[in-house]
Amino acid sequence: YWNGVSSIMVNDPKIPYKKGWTVEQLFSDRGWVWMQFTGLKDKNGKDIFEGDIIKVNGRNMEVFFEDGYFGWGQEHDGKYSFDPFGDEKIEVIGNIYENPELIKEK
């Protein structure tokens, strides 16, 4: 997950459970952002998470969850283009929290 308070990525969290809290409550109250695993790996065997930035067909795209499935896309004037994962050779090159400059519109 992304720890927005400390501005660090945490790969092996020890998350204290609070009885009756949802995951969303636990994370949002701390300024954390859950990055859901897609179940997929890139061309180098690296796990792909929601919020990752991937290079696909020579372009940098954001991984996100839309209408019940994961895909990749890019924001244009406040709207997202969206494509589901297919046979593309993709590579994780960063994420929207640590490397936002990789996904900025030009």
What does this 3D model show about the protein?
It is built from one helix and ten strands, in the order E-E-H-E-E-E-E-E-E-E-E. It is mainly beta and 106 residues long. The strands form three sheets. The protein has a five-stranded antiparallel sheet, with no helix packed on it. The two termini are 28 Å apart. The mean pLDDT is 76.
Short note summarizing the structure:
By secondary structure, the protein is mainly beta. Helices cover 6% and strands 43% of the residues.
Helix content: under 10%
Largest sheet composition: 5 strands, antiparallel
Gross geometry: globular
Strand proportion: 35-45%
Structural class: mainly beta
Compressed to H and E, one letter per element, the order equals EEHEEEEEEEE
- The total of helices stands at 1
Catalogue the unreliable spans. none
Terminal CA distance: 28 Å
* Major beta sheet, strand line-up: 9-8-7-6-10
Layout of helices and strands:
Blueprint: E1 2-3, E2 8-9, H1 23-28, E3 32-33, E4 37-41, E5 47-49, E6 52-56, E7 59-66, E8 69-76, E9 79-84, E10 91-95
Antiparallel strand pairs: 1-2, 1-3, 4-5, 6-7, 6-10, 7-8, 8-9
